[in-house]
């Protein structure tokens, strides 16, 4: 059972730790070593070199930073904005809620990454625009969750009691409702991290994310596909890393959901 | 049924209107002068003015919106800035490839997901279940833009069974369809499992057991049809996403569908084509979802009365 926690947790910690310390490490993601162009991984070459003779290990580490910044920013903005908007809308109900639901429906009418791709294309490339595009499309999930939770919690005794003694709407929302929403929102956020990592890499793969020479796992895969015949490690290494981190984030979300659920059940008995 | 259809239809119309507005505003999100972005900084002033006029960007916003809506009603999507061809023709040209890829992917997804989900549900918490769900989790975690290249690497370069990209040969569709199909199968198998597990706890299945029906018959004739509804909804969502052109997978395999059209247009800064492609993709998605809901309500009449 502990394996279920420790395997994903150590990968996520490794990823976050690498992202945090990579500015302090003597990394040279842009340094070109002409003698080592397309060198495969080996004892002296670490993870090998890419088509311009840049170290893949160094680029992988800076790519970790890119995905970490984007994932954290997108999930943070999504949870806070989406959670607050969804909770407020669910609590106020009436025409505010009606308009809110319509907006959510419109944003959900775009399949998958389509809206984010279109936004990123219009805003132009760059890590800030990736964050904007993914946040503008990503808050909807948290908002829907928060709204649904508030709708069912609105009639809870402690909320009715708070309303009866004249507590302000803002205070009821922030003190009596939002704390109860944190558990489901955290579970959703851990899946959201996996989604944001894939989305960032996907946009960078399409050339809409981080611009060269900056490193992203997605753009490393894209650049690598051109040399797949001679140097498959250019695609395999960043892809494997990406998959492991996403898998770990998903597993962590699964674990978190079960863990919070059990506690919930124990509390009810 | 009519009342349900009317509410569903009206909310779809509002959704479409919202999508139209968002797509219309897309061109105004471009930072700076959109005409300059499209033509490049070195373009002649006269060319810029000509483009500004032909796109109507010199008019006030509400006038532009009105003109946009009116031209859409006439199915006039304008012309590509890059090739000068009517955008409608470009879209129509790409639809068959996307349709073909979607149908093959969907077939692969269903053939993979149904047996996996069935196995997992009937062997809950046993190795079969863990294996199937492990596959599902893996499938959800592998991004298309990595699975695609890996499949090319294995299938085309090492085994030499498939063409590397494009549409040549009858088997060219298999690699992109496998890429899309396995990702969909992963999510679908989880849904089949959970939906089936829910049905397996129902009273009528205990009755079937008490009657002495064979386990296979109980599973396939009594349990499966009754757990199909949520699976159908998910399939509708997935088909809608596929028909819109799987942007990333089409790019990986240079598959000439709607998704690739959009990416090419983005790279050429051909924003009218980008707008039209986004519109076409999201409208398809909305319509497929509407259709799914209608089928759902037809299969399960209870749903008509549940909606507010």
Descriptive terms for the model:
heterodimer, A: mainly alpha, elongated, B: 308 residues, mainly alpha, 76% helix, flat
Summed up:
The complex is a heterodimer of chains A (269) and B (308). Chain A is mainly alpha-helical and 269 residues long. Chain A is built from nine helices and no strands.
The counted number of beta strands of chain A is 0
Span between termini of chain B: 14 Å
Low-confidence stretches of chain B: none
**CATH homology superfamily name of the largest domain in chain B:** MetI-like
Mean pLDDT of chain B: 85
Order of helices and strands of chain B: HHHHHHHHHHHHHHH
Q: What is the straight-line distance between the termini of chain A?
A: 24 Å
* Architecture (CATH level 2) name of the largest domain in chain B: Orthogonal Bundle
Cα-based radius of gyration of chain A, to the nearest Å: 22 Å
Share of residues in helices of chain A: over 70%
Number of strands of chain B: 0
> SSE order of chain A in H/E notation?
HHHHHHHHH
Mean pLDDT of chain A: 87
Gyration radius from CA atoms of chain B, angstroms = 24 Å
Structure write-up:
The complex is a heterodimer of chains A (269) and B (308). Chain A has 269 residues and is mainly alpha-helical. Chain A has one domain: MetI-like (MetI-like fold, Orthogonal Bundle). Chain A has helices at residues 2-21, 56-92, 94-108, 114-123, 127-153, 157-164, 169-205, 217-225, 233-268. In chain A, helix 4 (114-123) crosses helix 5 (127-153). The longest helix of chain A is centred in the first third of the chain and has 37 residues, at 56-92. Chain A is elongated. In chain B, helix 6 (127-141) packs across helix 8 and helix 7 packs across helix 8 (174-200). Chain B is mostly helical and 308 residues long. The longest helix of chain B has 36 residues, at 87-122. Chain B folds into two domains: 8-73, no CATH class; 89-268 and 294-299, Orthogonal Bundle (MetI-like fold), CATH 1.10.3720.10. Chain B is flat, with a radius of gyration of 24 Å. The chains are: A mainly alpha (269), B mainly alpha (308). Chains A and B meet through helix 3, helix 4, helix 7, helix 8 and helix 9 of A and helix 1, helix 6, helix 7, helix 11 and helix 12 of B.
């Amino acid at each position: 059972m502990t394996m279920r926690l420790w395997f994903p947790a150590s990968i996520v910690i490794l990823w976050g730790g690498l992202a945090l310390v990579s500015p302090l490490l003597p990394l040279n993601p842009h340094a070109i070593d002409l003698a080592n162009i397309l060198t495969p991984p080996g004892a002296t070459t670490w993870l090998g070199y890419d088509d311009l003779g840049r170290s893949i290990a160094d680029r992988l580490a800076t790519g970790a930073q890119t995905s970490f910044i984007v994932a954290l920013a997108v999930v943070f903005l999504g949870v806070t904005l989406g959670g607050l908007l969804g909770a407020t809308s669910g609590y106020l109900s009436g025409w505010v809620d009606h308009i809110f639901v319509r907006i959510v429906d419109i944003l959900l009418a775009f399949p998958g990454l389509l809206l984010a791709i279109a936004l990123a294309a219009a805003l132009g490339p760059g890590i800030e625009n990736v964050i904007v595009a993914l946040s503008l499309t990503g808050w909807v999930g948290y908002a829907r969750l928060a709204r649904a939770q508030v709708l069912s919690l609105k009639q809870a005794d402690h909320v009715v009691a708070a309303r009866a003694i004249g507590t302000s709407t803002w205070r009821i929302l922030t003190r009596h409702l939002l704390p109860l929403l944190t558990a489901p929102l955290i579970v959703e956020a851990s899946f959201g991290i996996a989604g944001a990592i894939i989305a960032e890499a996907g946009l960078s793969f399409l050339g809409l994310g981080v611009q060269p020479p900056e490193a992203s796992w997605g753009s490393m895969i894209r650049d690598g596909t051109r040399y797949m015949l001679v140097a498959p490690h250019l695609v395999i290494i960043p892809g494997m890393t990406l998959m492991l981190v996403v898998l770990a984030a998903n597993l962590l979300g699964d674990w978190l959901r079960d863990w919070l659920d059990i506690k919930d059940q124990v509390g009810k008995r | 049924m009519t009342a349900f259809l009317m509410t569903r239809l009206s909310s779809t119309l509002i959704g479409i209107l919202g999508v139209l507005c968002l797509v219309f505003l897309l061109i105004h999100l471009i930072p700076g002068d959109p005409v300059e972005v499209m033509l490049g900084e070195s373009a002649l002033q006269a060319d810029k003015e000509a483009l500004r006029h032909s796109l109507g960007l010199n008019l006030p916003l509400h006038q532009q919106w009105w003109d946009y809506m009116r031209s859409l009603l006439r199915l006039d999507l304008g012309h590509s800035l890059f090739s000068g061809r009517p955008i409608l023709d470009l879209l129509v040209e790409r639809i068959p490839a996307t349709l073909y890829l979607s149908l093959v992917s969907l077939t692969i997804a269903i053939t993979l997901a149904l047996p996996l989900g069935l196995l997992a549900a009937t062997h809950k918490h046993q190795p079969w279940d863990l294996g199937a769900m492990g596959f599902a989790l893996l499938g959800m975690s592998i991004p298309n833009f990595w699975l695609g290249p890996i499949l090319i690497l294995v299938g085309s370069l090492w085994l030499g069974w498939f063409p590397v990209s494009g549409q040549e040969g009858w088997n060219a569709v298999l690699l992109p369809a496998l890429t899309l199909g396995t990702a969909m199968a992963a999510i679908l198998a989880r849904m089949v499992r959970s939906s089936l597990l829910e049905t397996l706890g129902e009273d009528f299945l205990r009755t079937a057991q008490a009657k002495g029906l064979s386990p296979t018959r109980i599973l396939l004739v009594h349990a499966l049809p009754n757990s199909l509804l949520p699976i159908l909804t998910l399939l509708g969502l997935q088909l809608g996403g596929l028909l819109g052109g799987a942007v990333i997978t089409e790019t990986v395999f240079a598959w000439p569908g709607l998704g690739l059209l959009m990416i090419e247009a983005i790279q050429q800064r051909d924003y009218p084509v980008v707008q039209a492609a986004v519109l076409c993709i999201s409208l398809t998605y909305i319509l497929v979802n509407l259709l799914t809901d209608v089928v759902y309500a037809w299969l399960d009449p209870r749903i008509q009365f549940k909606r507010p």
